[in-house]
Design goal:
With 299 residues, the chain is of the alpha/beta class. It is built from 10 helices and 10 strands. An 8-stranded mixed sheet has the order 1-2-4-3-5-6-9-10, sandwiched between helices. A hairpin with a 2-residue loop joins strand 7 and strand 8. Helix 2 crosses helix 3 and helix 5 packs across helix 6. The protein is globular. The two termini are 26 Å apart.
Length: 299
C-alpha cells in the first residue's frame, strides 16, 4: 500500500461537508468487494493524514479516515457551538450514514480512540470491532472541579473572540511547531510525520500559512465525566476490542489506571509496546503487526 493510494473524499452531513482520505487496502490477489469497513478517527488537532503511514502496512480492509469536524479540511461547527465528545459521537454516525455503512469497525488514536469508545458503547448494534490506540474512554474529572472547569471554559471562550491566529512564513516552521507541541504529550514525531499533518492542517493566507483547525478546539472542555462514569462506559463496550498503549504511559492516562480500564472490557485485550504518543505514525509497521487480522477475523 502506498500513501498515494489513499484518495480524497467528501460527504455531506447535517453539520456540513466532512472531508478525508479513503482507500481499499487489499491483500495481494484479493479482489473481493466485501472487505471489512473501518472508520479511522484521528487525535486532537491532527487530521486524516495521521493514518497515512499506518495504511501502508494494513491489509484486507476498506479504510475511511475523515477529518473530524473542525479539523483538517472539514467543516467547523456553527458560531456559538462548542466541541464535545457527545457531539462527536453523532458526527461519526452521520459520516457512517453518509457512506451508507450501517455496520462498521472503528480505529481510533488518542481523542479519536476516546470518541470511538463512546460510539461503541452507545451503538453496539453498529460497531463490529474496535482498535483503540493511546486512549480508552474519556478524560476524567473529579466532581470537586466542576465549577472551576466551567468558569475557566466560559472565560476562555469569551476571550477567544479577540485573539488573532499565528501565521507561519513557511511549512517547515509549522512542522517544527507541531513537533514541539507533540513533545509536550510524549510524542516522538519525526519531521516527515509532522509534515504530513501540517500539509493537511494549514491554509494559505497573506504572509504564509495558518492552522485550518477551528480555534475553539483549544478551549477547555466545559464538563467531563467522572472516573466511575467512564468505567461504566468502558464496561458497556460489547464488541471485540484491542487496546494499544505506548510505554511509557502518558500523564493523562497513567499506569495502573489505563490497565484497569482495559480490564473492564467484556471482550478486550491490551497490548503495550515501547514508543511515543503517535506510535501509529512513528512505528506504523509495528502497530500494523499488532492489529494484524483483527478486523478481518470473523466474530
Amino acid at each position: 500500500m502506498r500513501a498515494r493510494e489513499l484518495q480524497e473524499f467528501g460527504v455531506d452531513t447535517p453539520l456540513g461537508c466532512i472531508r478525508g482520505l479513503r482507500g481499499v487496502l487489499r491483500r495481494d490477489g484479493d479482489a473481493r468487494d466485501d472487505l471489512p469497513r473501518v472508520i479511522a478517527l484521528h487525535g486532537w488537532l491532527d487530521n486524516a493524514a495521521s493514518f497515512v503511514p499506518l495504511a501502508q502496512h494494513l491489509h484486507g480492509i476498506e479504510l475511511v479516515a475523515p477529518d473530524l469536524p473542525g479539523h483538517g479540511a472539514s467543516a467547523h461547527l456553527a458560531p456559538g457551538a462548542d466541541y464535545s465528545f457527545a457531539g462527536a459521537v453523532n458526527s461519526v454516525l452521520d459520516i457512517a450514514d453518509a457512506l451508507g455503512w450501517e455496520r462498521f469497525n472503528l480505529l481510533g488514536h488518542s481523542m479519536g480512540a476516546g470518541i470511538s469508545s463512546l460510539v461503541a458503547a452507545a451503538c453496539p448494534q453498529r460497531v463490529e470491532r474496535l482498535v483503540a490506540i493511546e486512549a480508552l474512554g474519556a478524560l476524567a474529572e473529579v466532581p470537586e472541579r466542576t465549577v472551576v472547569r466551567l468558569r475557566d471554559a466560559i472565560a476562555e471562550t469569551r476571550a477567544l473572540r479577540g485573539k488573532s491566529l499565528r501565521v507561519f512564513p513557511d511549512l517547515a516552521i509549522a512542522a517544527r511547531a507541531r513537533m514541539a507541541a507533540g513533545a509536550q504529550v510524549g510524542s516522538r514525531l519525526q519531521l516527515d510525520a509532522a509534515r504530513l499533518l501540517v500539509e493537511r492542517g494549514v491554509v494559505p493566507v497573506e504572509g504564509g500559512f495558518r492552522w485550518s483547525s477551528d480555534p475553539r478546539l483549544t478551549l477547555p472542555t466545559m464538563q467531563r465525566m467522572t472516573e466511575p462514569q467512564i468505567r461504566d462506559l468502558v464496561a458497556g463496550i460489547e464488541c471485540p476490542t484491542r487496546v494499544i498503549f505506548a510505554d511509557p504511559a502518558q500523564p493523562y492516562l497513567p499506569e495502573p489506571l489505563r490497565r484497569e480500564r482495559a480490564g473492564l472490557l467484556p471482550r478486550g485485550e491490551l497490548v503495550v509496546i515501547e514508543g511515543g504518543h503517535h506510535l501509529h505514525m512513528e512505528q506504523p509497521e509495528r502497530v500494523a503487526e499488532v492489529i494484524g487480522d483483527f478486523f478481518v477475523t470473523a466474530i
